[in-house]
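Re-run with default settings, no changes from the original entry. Doing this only to confirm the output is reproducible before filing.
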Amino acid sequence: MALRLRGGNLGVDFVDLSDGSGLKRLNWSTSAPEWLIASPGLCLEGQCTNRSCKAYSQTVIMNIRFKKFDMLLGVNETTCKCPMCQKYVKPKTCAFNRCWWCWKGVKEGGAGEPPKPCSGNWKEADNAYHRFDEQISGSVTWRQLIIEAVENKP
């Protein structure tokens, strides 16, 4: 009997954007470290794993800014890197500031459940850091996730 290996795990683990309970508005700080500097638009967050980096084991902000960003195809060593050491950082959550944003995706279903399409309407992020706390919203496996941030109201 010959066995064939099937496709493997499709998707990416990322914060559950469909659970808005973890979306928190944070005021700006004047004393944040340089790896936590946010530009307007979409920001991704992850933890730097480079032991020789000043930001090692710290959450860092990766500024994506204004665009439509594919969390499965767009995440790579160019788009998602530590601002200090330039090494790849796996994003685990996101934030927005001074922009309009929305998302659409397909979440992996639970045991015996089909994948579930879902989306979020346009929202405005004012001059503050609007961050999804993954400890509150949780993380899910996304089969598809597109996050869009634009400068002006659509």
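The beta strands are 12-15, 23-26, 41-47, 59-65, 67-70, 91-97, 99-107, 116-125, 129-132, 139-150. Helices lie at 134-137.
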